[in-house]
Amino acid sequence: MITKRQLGYLFIVMGLFVMAGALAANYIGGRDAGFGPFQKIGLAGGVVIILLAIPLIRLGNRPA
């Protein structure tokens, strides 16, 4: 059974992957135009996912 704390950590990892993907898209694309709108949305989405995960970690080891 997965706990709320484990689910919170999983969401943090997912948020970091989203942010890393948004940053890596700039290097893969090879353009020097800076961040595009989808990259900004990806970074903001990653931050939102991480911020939503923090209360889950604080809830402890109760089942999710």
Mean pLDDT: 88
| Order of helix and strand elements from N to C terminus | HH
Shape: elongated
Radius of gyration from the alpha-carbon trace, in angstroms: 15 Å
Helix/strand/pairing class, anyone? Answer: mainly alpha
Tell me the fraction of residues in β-strands, as a range.
under 5%
Could you tell me how far the N terminus lies from the C terminus, measured between alpha carbons in angstroms?
A: 8 Å
Query: Are there runs of 5+ residues with pLDDT below 50, and where?
Result: none
Largest sheet: none
Beta strands, count: 0
State the helical fraction: over 70%
- Number of H- or I-type helical stretches: 2
Which characteristics define this entry?
64 residues, 75% helix, mainly alpha, 2 helices, single chain
Textual characterization of the structure:
The protein is an all-alpha fold. It has 2 helices and no strands. It has helices at residues 4-29, 37-58. The longest helix is centred in the N-terminal third of the chain and has 26 residues, at 4-29. The protein is elongated. The mean pLDDT is 88.
Write the layout of secondary structure elements.
Elements (H helix, E strand, L loop, with lengths): L3 H26 L7 H22 L6
Helix pairs in contact: 1-2
